[in-house]
From TrEMBL:
Name by which UniProt lists this protein: Uncharacterized protein
Gene3D superfamilies associated with the record: YVTN repeat-like/Quinoprotein amine dehydrogenase (2.130.10.10)
Ranges for region Disordered: 376-417, 443-465
Bias kind Pro residues: ranges: 390-414
Lineage, broadest ranks: Bacteria, Pseudomonadati, Planctomycetota, Planctomycetia, Gemmatales
Alphabetical list of SMART domains matching this protein: PQQ
Xref: InterPro entries: PQQ_b-propeller_rpt, Quino_amine_DH_bsu, WD40/YVTN_repeat-like_dom_sf
Length: 636
């Protein structure tokens, strides 16, 4: 992130809409992007990772990383012209020219000034512009590869996407700085002003004049604590997202709010309206649609012409608010959002969020991109029935009985066997969400991009598994193990004391089934909370293993209930626990190793929906878990 406004971003948030809807997306883990571009195919996303010296390519339809290209510099800001990728070197005054598809270098261009901050250009013609950390602006001739310092001033950069006839820059002055030099202003300096709302950003419009840029318009009160600058696809509006929104000038006035302002590109003094609050935003390449990122927690659709806000979708309860990456991908059918890389937050990562498109929307996209991905996740190939896992002693417990996979699968909903390998992490028919704890073999496995780092603890797991709102969080008490798995090539080991939980992408309000494979070492145990929110006070069904017995709580709906022993839990053997949940009736039943307990149990608390699962291991307990699956009821 550019240092110019990092301090202003921290602790400053946009006002979020009160009502949000859940969204059923997918997420991959990714360190903070230093730059990114979306290729015109609407499929390929390229992300730069400066400290690794890599360009990472993603297929936004398959929602997978496809390759990494190592480069001999620290790749930062990027822009695309035709099939040529321009990449700024982080911390240096050098721009590298690469083939966008292969990442192969064509040329290196030295600006001769300070480090590159941002890059921008017309998508198919004209100069490429680079701003620097000291607000200089350079014009790069793509044909000759020469760079010329212009008289322009700016940090943020956008270029007229229609004719390429104008360049717009934005500056967010650091607090405490009294003025910014703008050579072409009559007074030669821009006087910085701030009030209780914060420091005001300004926007400048330039037109090419030979190799130079000529100032033709300015807006001195563009936003408070600006994050990004954007331009509408029709080239008529320039928009600035910020932490403080737009406020009247210090001289006085009325109105204002946390929404982003839009100004006319013909005359920047003309305000054209205000959109919803946003950290950063993106415009759809085909449809009349924009999307606002709201601090990584929500996304809100809006109309780029009227700036009227539309539906708001909840992505994460808490997230990294940096405005680094939001775009449309998957041939215009998804929003792609990066909202953080905190391993302790299971909802931070690179999200692929499906758009609510109409039949007309899809028809318009097909005219541009051809065949589109299905509007819902396609069913994977029908897996084979369960096969017993090899008998392997419990790690660290030589001579103990080997684990086994018990019982048949839920009727009509097969469980993949240990040899089943998926090319992509798709959901089989009837599956709401599932966690395999595998790498290259078994449920949800992916040899190219393993969803679980086997042999490691205190690291996130489950990236790319559909149906979940995020991943299993990094936890020093949680280890993804490869020895003695109940299914596939991996399992989860939990040690005391810890709560380990994961949320579903959407709440479940009807009836459904949850399956879990459980292996309990001697003296081990676990409590499973099936809850509506990330709190035990929304727990519906609750079962566990205590003192060598499976238990179920017959809840009274007020937090109280009676724990009842059901069946022996044989130590160091895999058992299948299957619970059938009926949310409207606030009742549930439990089946262990294919034998159903005849009783029906009540919810611990009254809750109108279920959206997560939590495993508590405490005291001297430990537990092994595998193949956690949320399934539609067999009658569905």
């Amino acid at each position: 992130m550019p240092h110019l406004f990092l301090a202003m971003l921290l602790g400053t948030t946009c006002a979020a809409p009160a009502e949000t809807e859940p969204i059923d997306g997918n997420m991959l883990l990714l360190p903070a992007p230093d730059g990114w571009v979306m290729l015109p195919d609407g499929v390929t996303l390229i992300v730069s990772q400066a400290e690794k010296g890599e360009l990472v390519y993603f297929d936004t339809v398959a929602e997978q990383e496809t390759k990494r290209v190592s480069v001999d510099f620290k790749p930062g800001a990027m822009t695309l012209q035709g099939e040529t990728l321009y990449v700024g070197t982080k911390g240096a005054s050098i721009v590298h020219v690469l083939d966008a598809k292969t990442g192969k270098e064509k040329r290196e261009i030295t600006l001769g000034g300070d480090a590159v901050a941002n890059l921008a250009c017309h998508p198919s013609k004209g100069p490429v512009y680079a701003s620097t950390t000291t607000l200089g602006v350079y014009s790069i001739d793509p044909a000759s590869g020469t760079a010329t310092k212009t008289a322009a001033t700016g940090h943020f950069l956008v270029v007229d996407p229609v004719g390429g006839t104008a360049v717009f820059t934005g500056v967010q002055p650091p607090r405490g700085q009294d003025e910014v030099i703008v050579k072409q202003l009559p007074e030669r300096t821009y006087k910085v002003f701030w009030d209780r709302w914060g420091t005001r950003a300004f926007v400048l419009k330039f037109v090419p004049e030979g190799k130079d840029l000529k100032l033709v318009s300015s807006q001195k009160n563009a936003a408070v604590n600006a994050y990004t600058l954007a331009i509408s696809p029709d080239g008529k509006k320039v928009l600035m997202t910020s932490g403080g929104g737009w406020r009247p000038p210090v001289e006085g006035g009325s109105g204002g709010g946390y929404g982003f302002p839009a100004f006319s590109t013909e005359n920047l003094e003309t305000m054209l309206g205000q959109g919803p609050g946003a950290t950063n935003l993106a415009f759809h390449p085909v449809l009349n649609m924009g999307v606002a990122n709201q601090s990584g927690r929500n996304i809100q659709l809006f109309n780029p012409k009227s700036l009227i806000g539309g539906k708001t979708f909840s992505v994460s309860a808490g997230a990294d608010g940096r405005p680094l990456l939001i775009t449309f991908g998957a041939k215009g059918t998804k929003v792609v959002l990066w909202n953080g890389d905190n391993p302790k937050n299971p909802e931070e990562g690179l999200h692929f969020l499906p758009l609510p498109l109409t039949a007309d929307d899809r028809a318009a996209l097909e005219k541009v991109y051809g065949k589109l991905p299905d509007p819902v996740a396609v069913a994977a190939k029908t897996p084979r029935p369960d096969k017993p896992a090899p008998r392997v002693p419990t790690p660290g417990r030589p001579g103990t009985p080997a684990p086994r996979v018990p019982g048949p699968a839920t009727p009509g909903i097969p469980v993949p066997g240990a040899t089943e390998q998926a090319e992509t992490i798709e959901l089989p028919a009837g599956v709401i969400a599932q966690a395999g704890f595998n790498a290259a073999k078994g449920l949800n496995s992916n040899a190219k991009s393993p969803p679980y780092p086997l042999g490691k603890s205190n690291t996130p797991g489950g990236a790319g598994e559909r149906g979940w709102k995020g991943v299993w969080p990094a936890n020093p008490k949680a280890t993804f193990v490869s020895e003695g798995a109940g299914e596939g090539d991996g399992a989860l080991h939990l040690a005391a004391t810890t709560n380990y939980n994961r949320a579903l992408a959407k709440p479940l309000k009807d009836s459904f089934v949850i399956e879990t494979l459980v292996r309990c070492p001697p003296g081990g145990g676990v409590k499973c909370y099936v809850w509506g929110a990330t709190s035990h006070v929304s727990t519906g069904p609750m079962w566990g293993v205590t003192g060598g017995k499976f238990t179920a709580m017959n809840g009274k709906g007020n937090g109280n209930g009676d724990n009842q022993a059901i069946k022996e839990c044989k130590p160091d053997e895999w058992h299948k626990v299957s619970i059938a949940v009926d949310v409207p009736k606030q009742q549930w039943t439990i089946t262990i190793d294919g034998t159903r307990d005849p009783k029906s149990y009540g919810f611990r608390y009254k809750t109108g929906f279920i959206q997560g699962i939590n495993f508590l291991v405490e005291g001297k307990e430990e537990i092994y878990l595998d193949a956690v699956r949320f399934l539609n009821s067999p009658e569905k």
